[in-house]
User: What shape does this take?
Amino acid sequence: MEKLDAKPELRHLCRLPLGDWYAVGLKLGIKDRDLEAAEKEHWGKTTNQIREMFGLWLRRDTKATYRKLIEVLLRRKETESADTLVKEIGVSYQGPPPSTPGPAIEFCSPDNIHMLQAVTRFNAQVHPLESTTAEAVLACTPLQRALSKKLDNHAFQSLLSSSSQVNKARILSISAPHAGSWISATPSTGLDLHLDSAECQVALRWWLGLDTSGDSSCPLCPDTTLDPLGHHAATCRHGGDVVARHNRLRDIFANFCRRAHLSVQVKVGYGLARDHINSRPAEILVQGWDRGKPAAFDVTVTSPLTPVSLNNASASVGAAAYAAECRKHAANDTRCQELGWMCIPLAVETYGNWGKEAQSVFSRLASLLSISQAIPKPKMLSELLPPQHVPGEVCGKGHHGKGSCPRVG
Assistant: This one.
């Protein structure tokens, strides 16, 4: 009994097989905004999200006990997690005394007819495995957030299944976490984070998969007609737009590293030896990145609509970025190992989805910046995910976009 009423140890909680850690956190009294911050900070890493959630609970709830947690887990139908916790701390738990049942609810009464109609409409819009019941809704078992997520997922899958292969690749890329950061960026002329009316129109048409070509041809590529989805405009290597976009991303990342008080060198290792004349193992070399070892970062922008990436990009999120990371490792790993550097590609798709390695780098850099500048890590992470990767050549800043959309306003 004493163990049940003791304050839990974090090490006992991080390995619990939670089905919905977010809902458990809400039941433990953690605010929704704090759970959202934990979800964004550790996106895709459920174990870290669970650790952060329980850490918040233990720090803020002075009356946190194993008993309280077990009761919450049982109310949330997290039976496996409750059993695991009981075995972990080595106690027996009989559960709270049964409550006196209230009066039976007549589900078909006039008071509940609207709820029944709502449940029927909900079940008609989701997969049968995602359906719910009136009893579950009245018992508040599914949270509104969970029900809304089921509706959104079903709508997304319906849209995906009815799309062409090219549009599937586009939709999966723009649906990735943080891919739409440019849309929510605060406009700032001083920081060059702004689009005029014409540019904004074309950028949004491109993002939504509408025709951006204007039935025109590329001015620098003979006999090349611009495609409706703007793939050629985003990847054309004539005119310098692609190089300018690449260099800007490189310089932004280097500046963030400097703000974190890291030693940064740009364009390191070009032609270090005769047998590596064309090598560039480090566009950005950061000293002491991990346990004193330097890291060689190489920025690469890739399109999920290229023929070599289209099949995989139309089947899974981030396939194009992952392929780009693999290409960079194949090109630079050997030389980086000779020099004692870590090879870390920073791959981003044209629609804004960053590769897994880049996301890990941003998370680590946000931690360093939050310490050096006294800014919360989630806020710092939102700054780090650059909103500048809307291609200038698509939205009117490059040679492909000039004149493609009239200025308004």
Notes: Residues 319-339 form the longest helix (21 residues). Confidence is low (pLDDT under 50) at residues 97-110, 271-278, 387-397, 401-409. The radius of gyration is 26 Å.
